[in-house]
TrEMBL record:
It comes from Rufibacter quisquiliarum. This is Uncharacterized protein (DUF983 family). The chain crosses the membrane at residues 55-81, 87-109. InterPro entries: DUF983. Pfam families: DUF983 (PF06170).
Amino acid sequence: MNQNRSLLYSLAKTKCPRCREGDIFPKATLYSTKFADMREYCTCCGQSFEPEPGFYYGAMYVSFALNVGLFLVTLFLLSLFVEEVTMGMLIGLILVTSLGMLPVFFRLARLLWINIFVKYEGPSTQIPQKSHI
């Protein structure tokens, strides 16, 4: 199996950062009521997806940065198409886009955060399995 195992592949396909084969999220669809559910560990290499309690608190800062970027892009696009941007218009559009992007940003922030701390080690057949206690 000669697939591309880049970081971008891992983020786009929501794969394990250690082996980039196992799925982190059990449901592939973003827009369901269970978009926040995560597997406890990788089914291929055994990597824990919550290495310690409170591990994903840092992902909140990543999510904040993504939302700031969304705000700036929305403001720029709104100012291109609307002559006079009002505060109410801006707040309304930000609320709608932030809520619409919530599942995407939630997963992306967690994926980015775990990829910072768990490094790629190769295919699951070439790395030792991690045990679950």
